[in-house]
Structures are given as C-alpha cells and as structure tokens.
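Cont'd.
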Amino acid sequence: MVQGDPASRHMNPSIPFVRFRYDWLIHPTMLKQAALQPSLAFFPRRPVLSAGSNSAVLPFGNRRRQNGNSNKVRCAAAADESSAAGMEPPTLLTATKRPATVKAVVTVLMTVGGVFAHVGITRGLDDFGDLFGRSLRLELVGATLDPQTESEKKTVSAFAHKTKTGVESITYEATFSVPPNFGEIGAVAVRNEHHEEMFLKDIVLTIDGDDSAPLVFSCRSWLHSKFDDPQDRVFFTSNKSYLPSETPSGLQRLRQRELEILRGDGTGQRKKFERIYDYDVYNDLGNPDSDSALARPVLGGSVAHPYPRRCRTGRPPTHSGISSNTLLHRTLLRDGSLRCFSDPKSEQRSGNVYVPRDESFSAVKQVTFSAKTVRSVMHALLPSLETAMVDARMGFPYFTAIDKLFDEGVALPPHDSMHAFRTIVPRLVKALAAGAQNLLQFEVPEMIDRDKFSWFRDEEFSRQTLAGLNPLSIQLVTEFPFVSKLDPSIYGSPESLITAELIEREIKGIMAFKEALEQKKLFILDYHDLLLPFVHKIRELEDSTLYASRTLFFLTPEGTLRPIAIELTRPASPKKPQWRQVFTPSWDATGAWLWRLAKVHVVAHDAGYHQLVSHWLRTHCCMEPYIIAGNRQLSQMHPIYRLMHPYFRYTMEINALARVYLVNANGIIEQTFAPGKYSLELCSAAYGQQWRFDMEALPADLIRRGMAVEDPEAEHGLRLTIEDYPYAQDGLLIWSAVEQWVADYVGHYYSSPADIAADSELQSWWTEVRTKGHADKQNEPWWPSIDSQDDLVRVLTTIIWVASGHHAAVNFGQYQFGGYFPNRPSTARTNMPVEDASDSDLAKFRAKPEAELLRCFPSKIQATLVMAILDVLSSHAPDEEYLGKEAEAAWEKDPVIHAAFERFNGRLREIEGIIDGRNADSTLMNRCGAGIVPYQLLKPYSEPGVTGMGVPNSISI
Ligand SMILES: [Fe+2]
C-alpha cells in the first residue's frame, strides 16, 4: 500500500455550490385537463399512485408552476420524504483538524474477457502486480476548490491491494490519509495497472471506520488498462447528482473533460477499449467488396434515403465503391485495366463492430446470454440449416410437413459448435439419443397449442390487429372513399375499388354505410401507398412478389373486428396496366380460397411492416441517437443521465449485432421477408413518410390513428374507440406509471422552467438528438422543445415508453405469434391465381387450392430461419432488468427519488394484477375466449426464456 501521493491540479474559477431544491410546487387547479393542441400535446390525467398521499402528482400537460407559497401541493415524492429524511443525502466529508483515514473498497466482477478471465502471457505479470499491491491506483478528488488559492485541491492517492477473491467478484482495498479540511470527496480517478481491462462494479469509501454513511461510486464500467490508454478513468459519486450549474467547484473541470473524452474528435478508427460516442450514417449494411450484388445504398444523409444515425466506428471505406450513392468508383486506365477507388461514403464490414466499451454486455456474466445466443444462432446454426436444406426454394408439400418441425425436427449436419448450441439454445437444438446427430426441433407456440386452427380463421386474423404482434397499424377510417396520394401517371388510378355499396353488402343489414362511418365502426390496415412504389422492384427478385394492400374491418356490436374486404393492387408498368381486385369473405369454394390467399398476402405485409418498422425502426434504430447524444452531452453526474441510463442499456450492442446478422445485405431479414434486398430501403421510406418524435408517445399515437380521443372524464384522459383494445388498454397503464415516475424525478431536480432553460447540458442533448441523431428530420416543425418541466417529462416518458412498453409489445410475442409460420408468413411468394391467370393456372388452383396456399407460403428454409430467429428474439435473459424492478444506486441514495421509485415499483405490481383480471374477463372478447392466448405482452415481469410477457427497461434483444 502506498499513501500520500498527492498530485496537483489546475486552478478553476469557483462557482458557488447550489444545493438541491425540493420546493417544486403544484397548484390544485392543475388537476384539470389543460387545453392543449390536440394532435401533439395530449397527456392524460394520471391516477394518484400512492394510497394515503394527498399530494397527487399531476399530468405534465396539466401542470403549471405556482408562484408564491399559498395553496401549494408538493411534488408527491418531495412532500413525503424530504423533511423526514433531511435535505442532504449523506456525503463523505473530511473537515477535521487532523488527517482523516479514508478506506476504499473496490469490487471487480469476474468476466469472460477481463483481467481475471484467461491465462495469457500478461496474466502472470498482472498476478505479480496484484501480489505487490500495485495494480490499481486510486486518487481522491476534492469536490470544492481550495478557498485560499481558488485552485483545485491536491488529490490524495493510494494503491489498492487485493483482499478477497470470491466466486463472482474480487475485492481490492486502499487506505488514504486525507489532509485536514479536505472537504467533500466528489470523484475518484482510477488507473488500472494490469495489462487487461477489468469490470468495476463499485467503489465504496468510508471515513475513520464509520460505515454508516458510505460514499458510493457505482461504476458498472470497464476500466481500461493503462497500457491501452494512460489516461485515468474518473468516476463521480453516486450519492449526489448535479445539474451543470450546481456542479461543485472542484469538479467543474473534470465534468467538462469527461464529456470531451466521450465525444472524441470525430476522426480515426475506434478501438475496442474506447468510450467514444459519435454519429455515422448506415453505410455498412452492404458488402460490395465480397460481391457486387451485396452493394446497398447508404441510409441517412440524403433526401432519397432518410434514416436515423448509428454509432460511428471509423472503419475504412470499401474498395468497391458501387455500394454508395457515389456513381463512379472505377476508372478505365490507358492500359485498359480498371482501377478501383475506395468509396469514402461506404464502410468496410467487420465481424466485431465497435460499440463504446460500456455499451457492450458481451463479457459480463449472465447478461452474455442474449448476445451469445444471438451470435451462436446467426453465426453457425443458420448456415447449418442452409446445408441441411439444399433447395432454397422448396416449400412445404403438405401441412403435415409443417407439423414435423415440431414433432420430429430437422436433422442438422454435424458441426463443431453443436455442443455449444445445445447448451445455449436448448429450446431449439436437441441431441438425438446416440449423441452424434443434432436436431433443430421447435416448441409448439402457445396459440397453436391452445387452438391448432385459430390461424385459419377470420376472427383471429382481425383480433391480432388489436392484441397480436403488431397492434400499431390498425386505424379508424376517417375519410372515404380511399384515394392514393401517389402520382396516378406513374401508378395508375388512385381511387380504391372498395365502395360504399360493397361495404353495405358485407355489413349485411346491420347498419348503413354512412352510419358505420359516422359511428366509427370501420377500421383499416393500410399498406397501400407505402408498398406500391416497391411492387415492381420486388417482383423482379427471385421467388418473391408483392402487392399494395388495403384491408377493411367492421366493428361488430360485440366489440370485435370482422374483416370485410381486402384490396390488392399491382401498379401500372410500361408492360402491363394496373391490376386491382377486391376480395371478400365468401360462401362459395373458389371465393373462400381466394379470400384465404388474399389474407396470406396481407399478413405477410403486416409481418414485414412489423419487423422493419414497428420493431426495428421505431424502437431499436430510433433509440440509438438518444443514447449517443445522451452520453456526449449529459455528464454522468447529471440527474437526467442517471434517470435514463437503465433505459439505454445494451441497445447499442444489440443494434450492432443486428447490423452484422439481421438487417445487412443478404442477412436474415433480406433472405426471409418479401422486400428482400429492398427491405431497408422500405424501412427508410417509412421513416421519411411516417416517423415523428411526438407521435411516438402512446397517447398521441392512439389519437393519430383514431383509436382514441381525448376525454377528461375517462381513465388516463383518453376514451378508446374500441374499448377492448388490449395493447392500448395495458399500454396506457404502463405509460401512465412511467409518466408519474418521470414527473416525480424531474420535479425533484427542476423547480422552474428557468432551471430547464438554464441547463446547458440538457439543452445540448436535445438539440443534438434533433440536429445530429435525426439530422434528416431536423427541420421538421413537430419537434418539441424542452422549455418547461412538462416538456421534459413528455420527452423522457416518450423515450422510456419506446424502450420499454412499445418494444416489449412488438418483441416478446414474436415466437408466440410467428412460431407457427402460417399464422404470420414472412413472405407471400406467388401471385393471386386470378392475376393475369391462364386457364391452366386457374384449373390447377381449382384442382388443389391447398397446394396453391402452400406454394404461396415461405420456402422451407425461409420458414425455419425465421422460426429459429424469432425464438431467440422472444427470449428473456436469466438476469433481465425489468421496468421498475431494481433501483439504480444513485436513485437509492436520494430518499426522495428512492420513495418515488418505490411507488413506481408498487404501481407496476398492481398493473400485473389488473392485466390478469382483464384476461379473465369474458366480456373482453379480444383477450379472453375459447382457445385465445391471453394478452400478457405488457405484463411487467417474467421468468427467463420465451414467456410472451415481461417489460424490460431497455431494448437488449
Ligand atoms: Fe427487439
């Protein structure tokens, strides 16, 4: 142990320390619904969460700050605990006249790839360093400036020595002699003298043997080796969070420096140990260096292909420049040879994609589950499957052949990694008794287990638009007749063939068309204008076809939806005229089979839209800019950074994996979904046409789709157009609970709009989200500004909702609904038999329509690829972090925040019970009935594995 190794630091002007304020007050009149702009600013009334509290926290749309002290109702969190607990959380202060003894206990977690994990040439050196106690050097940093010199105080440093080696962690300890009047300790700088990185869990300081009020530094962070980067790593105390203006004087320079490190300078190729967060366009999806057919356009940065930004990795450009928007990359030289130029707009691909070190979860125990499983399945299992099924186009000859996937499985060729598969994905890969052969055998999805034929029926088809995997597309019909907004000179007649007469005929005397429209009984899945421009391109791909589609539903008196018409359209082309036809449920054999085939096309459209837009784009992809900007602009001591961090965890890593295996050229999505190589271009088109931040808030999304209207008398301030709409009903419970938690938290740290405006880091974060992360939409008028507590609560609630509830609703039911692929085929491969059909085609269809249906379904290999990947993506890791379950260290250190979090936790447990109650209510026919899988996707908690429930904090799979 070495003591007394002070190092001087530079001077910095002192800014007076401002303490927390707990006087954020709310006027009772704020309980009333504020008249807000209907489209964007709707935020419903929130229920009082804690029984016995008379201090209802108000919906942020209704909250206004009251000047003066009369009639004040305190923030629920602040009112209850601040006075009892004292205004200051405990801090470690050495204000004695004699030196104080400070003890530091450092906990390092065992990891797969860290310093204690492997035997290598450096391991001996590191053990040697540990033996002599010189492998971890800590430096205590004073929170305040020296009052005499107004410069930073001299730090106090010591080496830590290893004291305990446990199964999961190793403990180091250091003792410091801290000079008199050192004051508060605000940060610890740590240097890792090992040759390998280590994963730091936390550092706990106590003074003079008193461990009643320790100073905690919750790290959960990779500590790089000094041989990779000589710069020390700084951790700020978790005991307190500071707005920029409140930063203790002695920490101001460090706060700035840390942010500068995290931002980097925008140059160079990123190294694994770095923590730099920066932006780039999606220019690494293609792989033209391996095959010119794998060139893909750059997404983001152009009018043609708008897209959110991803994390910059700085990999070198590709050599074959045809992958990008630049046109000429090869030049014919005088000697006749072609010279290749690198393409500055397109990036080479690599297996291990850089993500900032602390975004990577791949080496921490347990949380490795998701990444390991995803990697294993994508890297080796799927190629094995391709080997086992030689004919890529072969479909299933009979329905019984589909059943065999579950009963008998698919024999896989021997592979070195099979043993690992059986360990990691036991649900999928099973060993035969002899042990030599492996089987890919699927579990029967719950919906098929309950009702084998439910997928075939109309009522299940329409029920799943409200309680299935993609409940985000169904919308109220507000305008009729349907008219395309696309150019008729290119695409043909814009008017739909669905007429009022046709609708009346299908409603069959229940009510007149006009009445149905006025009484909000007509709903639509509209995949017309988004898909139509892609139809011809996709039809040129091998083994694929596409239509644009409109599917119309009627809301029955029972509150369920009945599909009444499907319109499929092929636009005009130079060779052929426009082709359109409306299909309806029929009572003749040919009509009934055509209706079934039309449904296959619509479900394939919905499955593609779900995966590319509702899931990948709106959750995974759009979240990344918030995370990048948050780390670049919000200090790790900023309260909003500390609020949002658990909702950002692991997302960048899973997105990097998706770019390698899922959404890349010839990746799983392109191989299995109808749009093929145009999949991500379609995704970009949806981003350009449909995505807006303000509409990502659940209430605003429901209102936009006509699925709800504002109603101050209704629960959550919203009246649902279809009362029994399980996604909306349960989603609003989660939304409101999150909103209350965020309002409590924000109210604790900001007492006025002026505080919000003055928060330079917060404002920089939000500006950067818009101007850099979503740069292609930066000039859109709908971006909210953050001028008040209400604005901030609205923005943060929206982001947390997308990461938690929205993602859970579209992610964890993927196997449940897609595991039996006829229920959600990823592609429909053949045209309708009546499109430009020859007599022989029609005769073939009439002779055996079931064969036509099987030919239309995905091929055998497409179906099994999708089923395998959906099984993995639907799975919860053993140590999944669920919404509102565990408090962050910084939240626990503040009694007011801790109490608010406890209320959040309590409310989520209540919600579990409410959802169970709804699923048992036989009047709610869209979630309770014969053979129906109850709607549990928004139940907050779950066991590990594929359960069809559970709302994690963040997007990690
Ligand atoms: Fe996901």
